[in-house]
Amino acid sequence: MASDDPSARILQSATRHFAEYGFDDASVRDIAGEAGVNAALINYYFRSKADLYREVVIHSVRRLAESRVEMLDRLEREAGDKPIPVEVLLAATAGPVFAESREPGTDRRAYIRFLSRLFTDPGPETIAVVFGGPKELRERVFEILCRTLPHIPRRELAWRYLFLSGSVHFT
User: Fold this and answer.
1) pTM of the prediction?
2) DSSP 3-state assignment of 89?
């Protein structure tokens, strides 16, 4: 691990362990060992395994949400009054997962696996953080879809968007 910051090393290690083993089976001792710190330091920085997990979730989701908002801002600015093509909108919402995974210091495989695990094997804080946080973002994407596809009834489009979201998160 490249970072001199113990809390950053702990977060990187925790992301890998929670991605690989899930919340229940990830070991604080193993996380600490990989991060090159004493297990007590995890409690110093994060207080508990659940709080460490929550911080990994928040960090991962926040990065994605910020990237998606920036992308949507740019697309809406560029489109003006014109609709944003569906393919461009979907690429804008999916693209940040891959862009964020390429950030320096990011273990790409672990990052993507962790995001996938959030939806298939949620830990104690996943529901509140993931499904409670980016609601505005989901609503914004849906409203853009409604403007782009005005010929499709909102109710039908809502179902399509729900199925699309599920297929992205659960595959």
Assistant:
1) 0.66
2) helix
Question: Rounded to the nearest 10 degrees, how much is the dihedral formed by the CA atoms of 163, 142, 85, 98?
Answer: -70
CA distances from 110 to 10, 18, 113, 123, 127 (A): 14, 9, 5, 16, 20
Show pLDDT as tens, one digit a residue, over the chain (171 residues): 456 899 999 999 998 898 888 888 999 999 999 999 999 999 999 999 989 988 888 887 777 778 888 888 999 999 998 999 988 888 887 776 666 555 555 566 676 777 777 767 665 556 555 555 556 777 888 888 899 999 999 999 989 888 877 666 555
DSSP letter for each residue of the chain: ---S-HHHHHHHHHHHHHHHHHHHH--HHHHHHHHTS-HHHHHHHHSSHHHHHHHHHHHHHHHHHHHHHHHHHHHHHHHTTSPPPHHHHHHHHHHHHHHHHTSTT--HHHHHHHHHHHHHS--TTHIIIIITSTHHHHHHHHHHHHHH-TTS-HHHHHHHHHHHHHHHH--
